[in-house]
Amino acid sequence: MLEAIGVASVGEIFERQIPEAVRLARPLALAAGKPEQEVFEHLRGLAARNTSTEDELSFLGAGMYDHYVPALIDMLMERSEFLTPYTPYQPEISQGGLQVMFEYQTAISELTGLPVSNASTYEGPSAVAAAGYLAKLHNGRRRFVVSAGLHPHTIETLRTYAHGYGMEVVEVPLRDGVTDAGAWAEAIDGETSAAIFAQPNFYGAVEDAAALSAAAGAASGHPEGEGPVVIAQVDPLTLGILRPPGECGVDVAVGEGQSLGNRLDFGGPSFGLFAAREAYLRRMPGRIAGETKDVDGRRGFVLTLQTREQHIRREKATSNICTAQALNALGGVVYLSWLGRRGIVELGELMLARTHYARERLTSLHGVEALHSQPVVREFALRLDADVAEVRSRCAEHGVNAGADLQALTGRPEDRGGLLVAITERRTRADIDRLAEVLGAAVAASEPVPAEEAVAV
Amino acid sequence: MSPIDENHLHSDPSIEVHPDSSSPGAVAVAGPSPQQRDAARTIFQKGAPGRRAFMCPELDVPEVDVGELLPERFRRSSPPRLPEVSEPEIVRHYVGISKRNFDLDSGFYPLGSCTMKHNPRLHERAAALPGHARLHPLQDAERSQGALELMWNLQEALAEVSGLPHVSLQPSAGSHGELAGVLLTRAYHEDRGETRLKVLTPDTAHGTNPATVTMAGLQVVKLATNADGGIDLNDLRAKADRDVACLMLTNPNTLGLFDPNIKEIADIVHDVGATLYYDGANLNAVMGLSRPGDMGFDIVHFNLHKSFTQPHGGGGPGSGPIAVSDRVAPYLPVPVVARDEDGAFRLDHDRPKTIGRLRGFQGNYGCFVRSYAYICSLGGDGLKDASEVAVLNANYLLARLRRLGVEEHLPLAYGELCMHEFVLSGGPMKKALKIKTLDLAKRLLDYGFHPPTVYFPLLVDEALMVEPTETETRETLDGFAEAIAAILTEAADDPEIALHAPYSTPVRRLDEVGAAKHPVIRQVMEA
């Protein structure tokens, strides 16, 4: 090979191209390579030092959920044909991936009740930030009004992005667990580019999405249809039973897709869903697959509306996003096919019933009360009359992860004592009873929060 | 007419010339393949009412009327029209359409700038271990020490490879890493009380660079490329002033060339107080051989899905960690993995000057597992070997194409040697043989190869960007070179064959203009 190239050594290829001053004169200070079995053992050893949802009874949620992932998803996501290609630049040999995107878009449109969906974006919180950018491009106004019911990671991510593209972020507080309607209307004005809330919100509460959307339009003072872009961060798995955003006046629905057939993976990769009304189609970020025909008249699929995208439009692109989360979105659409039209409703109703049972059961414990009284679907917030860190740690000693420490996530003084408990279909009645037993004992054994430090709801 | 090595031509059984064919050029396939006969039907067009795969767990708590738990105005009135299919139908459907994909495990994928290297299955097995795959992102630090240690080790390894000491694993993809980098630059200047709005990007840059600059609220200023394919230093000197926040550079650049003036470029940029940003898309050329930090870069993003074998997944997931110099470190996104004096790992959120979060949780951990496994398998010397072989393969393929006389029609756009990839110009081919780069690419599909990246970088006429990676054998490279040569020979004889290619793929050329004009982006449901 060297002879064909006309060099004496591989080193010469580098010496002729890289100036000596920037050539690394020493070996990289990394451990030597290892045989496959040793690497596997090392990674297995690291895995063994983690307590997964297989190792404890976990009620952690707060953005990612321990749902059952059917075996056929593992098989399909590991198929070479889905796992190893790149983005479908050559549609003639990428029809499989393109059709998956098209089917995924269809499923997301059906779930959200919104006519256009992209082929997915990175994940939930950054999808909200991307939707904010769409709003800025759409109406050029300068402010986002956001509900404090959004996931704290979403608000933080939105602030990071908004500082970049030059938008102000105004936060509207909650009242009894949901967005304060009065404060919402007051915060929105003619300069509001987007009004953003979560459904269900971070505290597990079901928001009155239709009312929030309508109020956003009315409060802006703009004629109908010209108000702020209403953006909802939704949890797709609750949409089997919750009224879809498209029927609630929402313009753009975004959200974390992990609960649809994707594993926890300590936070990623998963996918972000992104659906909207038709009017926003040409400003959507990311890949979109479209249907067409080949020269022989056969049905086929291509990446479409690419003039929105960075590789064509460069600095005028609607987003810098290059690809999608194609493999994770495959998991999503396979999961939705597996659940099916009836299954997604049944699963939603099961979660609803068990979550209701759990809330009743836990709030009957001494020193435990509901943080709000709103309807909940899969998750709810409690207030403990005890130090949450201490209670969680006591529960962990009994193999129970009682849920997420609310205040550790939001930093809000009013969330002191807050515990966020998630009930997926994997948590049975017996599991919930076990949680009640362990949590009750842990609260009783822990230091009560001194009265003067407790904050009123 | 090129002197072509006739002994190595691929035979191409998919083509027959039918004198009576109605298509111009009298070229047609021998008849549609089974896949071509099979009309594409979506999962929404399959199944039957009531059919299902999912069996719901039993209701084990007291039944309560749904209306009591969820007022009607909050409830969905009719179920979403999801498919109604059995498990075997789902499996057949998706396995069936998967076969309409070309993939890296099936053949050569020399897609320039994408680094399509082998994805070892060890990585999938390791990432699927429940201790990784079923670890909740909010698990307490003391019960996720294995994961945090893995992230720490990966941070350390990336710091060593890049020569930049501070790493954040958070960005979700290369484009996300770029956004992080530009926001970091902004924060750095703002903290010093300076407002700098201009970001310099060469005209060879990936499209994400300018798109990112706009999203971060800054302005793009384009830099010219010199006759050798590097940055035009005079243009850089003219444009580098105190309003410049950053220069974004890929090195080797998208022409596959290492910029020999890199030190001088870094000096010019640093002299005006700007930062130097390294787009790590082409890191596979220089691992263990040259480090961005030593070249003078302040910020680099990695593409774990390129250099570090995270499978591309058909277009995601990716992962785009960043490494930065001391002066940029205070602004890194939160959280970062920290190690306490007692050796325990934790997520550090307490960084007063941080730009904030870029996403939920701590990044694409599943990708970290795979890339960390890769680094453990190869070690420092192995990474260097990988880059050396990637560069050797690219130069060999280039030499092989030259020997086959391809250069006459597809000359190298810039330079003599190349790094891990090279860019040919299809301009002369278009003129002499009447086929465009696109036609060459489509004809390659009939030969069983994924075509190289086409029409990028933009400054090369009819560009063809080839990146073979270290994965490929000499035999594969020879076969690819011969296929190119054969297509050129064939075109000299009859350009119509390439103009109407491909013939053997599940579908043939698709109407992309029509798709964009009248977008149909979801399955229309029957009432």
Describe the fold and architecture.
The complex is a heterodimer of chains A (457) and B (527). Chain A is of the alpha/beta class. Helices cover 38% and strands 15% of the residues of chain A. Chain A has 15 helices and 17 strands. In chain A, helix 13 (388-397) packs across helix 15 (429-445). Chain A is globular. With 527 residues, chain B is an alpha/beta fold. Chain B folds into two domains: 6-38 and 380-514, Alpha-Beta Complex (Aspartate Aminotransferase, domain 1); 124-377, Type I PLP-dependent aspartate aminotransferase-like (Major domain) (Aspartate Aminotransferase, domain 2). Chain B has 17 helices and 14 strands. In chain B, the strands form four sheets. Chain B has a seven-stranded mixed beta sheet with strand order 3-9-8-7-6-4-5, sandwiched between helices. Classes of the chains: A alpha/beta (457), B alpha/beta (527). At the A-B interface, helix 1, helix 2, helix 3, helix 4 and helix 5 of A face helix 3, helix 4, helix 5, helix 6 and helix 7 of B.
